[in-house]
C-alpha cells in the first residue's frame, strides 16, 4: 500500500470529542504493550506518528490518524494492564466500548495478539465480544520476529485452537521486520471494500 499522507488528527476520551464521521475507520485493540501503536506506524510508514513505549499503558486516549485522506486508523488504550486502578480500568473499558459501539463509520476491528504467548482470558473475552457484536475482525499475531519459524507455527496452532479459528485466519506480523504489512493492508481493503 502506497502512503501519500499520514496525519495525527486528535485524541479523544468522550464521543463529542471524536472527529466528524467523514472517513471509513478501522480500530486497533489488544493488550497493553502488544503493539497497537506500533502497527499503526508500520501501516502508515511512519516511525513515530503514534507514540509507542516499552512500558505498558502508554496510549490512554482514543487517537485518530488519517491516511491518504481517505481512511482513519484509530489507536485505543490496551486492556490487561495491572498497574492501573480498578476505577481507571473500568473507565478505559467504558471509553473503548462506547467508541466501538457508537461509531457509525467504524468498518472493522483489528485485534492484536502477542504470538509469543497463549491468548489471555482477556484476549479471548475481547475476541468473543467482537464476534457477538458482529464486528468484522482481523486477527493479527504480532511480535513474530521474536520467535523462530518453528515456534511461530507451534504458537499459531495454539492461538487458533484457543480462539477456535482456522489456521490461516490470523496474519503473522512484526512491526520490527514489517512482515505481514502488505497482508494486513490487503485484508483491510477487503473489510473496507476499497
Ligand atoms: P499501549 O499503548 O500501552 O496499550 O501499548 P501498545 O499496544 O500501543 O504497544 P506499543 O506499540 O507501544 O509497543 C509496545 C512495545 O513493544 C514497544 O517497545 C514496541 O517497540 C514493541 N513492539 C511492538 N511491536 C513489536 C514487534 O512486532 N516486534 C518487536 N520486537 N517489538 C515490538
Ligand atoms: Mg499504544
What would you note in describing this structure?
This protein is an alpha/beta fold. It has one domain (6-192): P-loop containing nucleotide triphosphate hydrolases (Rossmann fold), CATH 3.40.50.300. It is 33% helix and 22% strand. It is built from 5 helices and 7 strands, in the order E-E-H-E-E-H-E-H-E-H-E-H. The chain has helices at 36-43, 86-102, 121-132, 149-163, 181-192, and strands spanning 6-12, 24-30, 62-67, 71-75, 106-114, 137-142, 171-172. Strand 3 (62-67) and strand 4 (71-75) form a beta hairpin. The radius of gyration is 16 Å and the shape is globular. The model has no long low-confidence stretch (mean pLDDT 95). Guanosine-5'-triphosphate (GTP) is lined by residues 30, 32-38, 52-54, 56-59, 77-78, 142-143, 145-146, 174-176. Necessary for normal cell division and for the maintenance of normal septation. Pfam families: MMR_HSR1 (PF01926). One of its GO terms (cellular component) is cytosol. This is Probable GTP-binding protein EngB. Belongs to the TRAFAC class TrmE-Era-EngA-EngB-Septin-like GTPase superfamily. EngB GTPase family.
Features:
194 residues; alpha/beta; Rossmann fold; 7-stranded mixed beta sheet; 5 helices; 7 strands; globular; binds guanosine-5'-triphosphate; binds magnesium ion
List the helices and strands and how they pair.
Layout: E1 6-12, E2 24-30, H1 36-43, E3 62-67, E4 71-75, H2 86-102, E5 106-114, H3 121-132, E6 137-142, H4 149-163, E7 171-172, H5 181-192
Parallel strand pairs: 2-4, 2-5, 5-6, 6-7
Antiparallel strand pairs: 1-3, 3-4
Amino acid at each position: 500500500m502506497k502512503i501519500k499522507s499520514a496525519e495525527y488528527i486528535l485524541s479523544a476520551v468522550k464521543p463529542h470529542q471524536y472527529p466528524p464521521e467523514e472517513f471509513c475507520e478501522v480500530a486497533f485493540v489488544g493488550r497493553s504493550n502488544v503493539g497497537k501503536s506500533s502497527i499503526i506506524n508500520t501501516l502508515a510508514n511512519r516511525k513515530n506518528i503514534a507514540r509507542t513505549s516499552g512500558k505498558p499503558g502508554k496510549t490512554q486516549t482514543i487517537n485518530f490518524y488519517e491516511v491518504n485522506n481517505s481512511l482513519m486508523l484509530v489507536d485505543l488504550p490496551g486492556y490487561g494492564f495491572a498497574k492501573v486502578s480498578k476505577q481507571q480500568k473500568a473507565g478505559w473499558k467504558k471509553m473503548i466500548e462506547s467508541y466501538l459501539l457508537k461509531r457509525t463509520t467504524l468498518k472493522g476491528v483489528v485485534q492484536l495478539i502477542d504470538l509469543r504467548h497463549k491468548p489471555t482470558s482477556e484476549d479471548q473475552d475481547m475476541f468473543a465480544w467482537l464476534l457477538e457484536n458482529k464486528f468484522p475482525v482481523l486477527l493479527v499475531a504480532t511480535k513474530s520476529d521474536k520467535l523462530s519459524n518453528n515456534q511461530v507455527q507451534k504458537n499459531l496452532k495454539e492461538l487458533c485452537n484457543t480462539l477456535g479459528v482456522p489456521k490461516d485466519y490470523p496474519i503473522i506480523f512484526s512491526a520490527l521486520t514489517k512482515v505481514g504489512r502488505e497482508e494486513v493492508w490487503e485484508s483491510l481493503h477487503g473489510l473496507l471494500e476499497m
